[in-house]
Amino acid sequence: MGRNSQQRRAHKQRQQATRQRSAPVRTGTGGASPTLDELIGFACEAAFGPGADKALFARTMVLLQSLEAEANPLDRPSTRVVQVLQRLTESVLDGGWQPADLVHVVKREWTVRAGRLATGLIAEHARRFEAPTRAPHAWLGQLQDLGVVDAARTTVVGGRGDLLAVWARTERLHPEEALTAAVQVLAQVRQLPRLPIVLTVPSKWGATNRGVLPTPHSTDGIDAKALQLIRALLAKAEATTFEAEAEAFTAKAQELMTRHSIDAAVLAYAAAGSRTAAGVESRRVHIDNPYAEEKAGFLSAIASVNGVRSVWVPYAGLCTMLGFPVDLQLTDLLFTSLLVQATRASAAATAGNRALSTASFRRAFLVAFAHRIAERLEAARSHVAADAVHEYGESLLPVLASREAAVEAAYEAAFPNATTMRRRSLNAAGWYAGTAAADAADIGAGAAITRG
Question: How many domains does the chain have?
Answer without folding.
Answer: 2
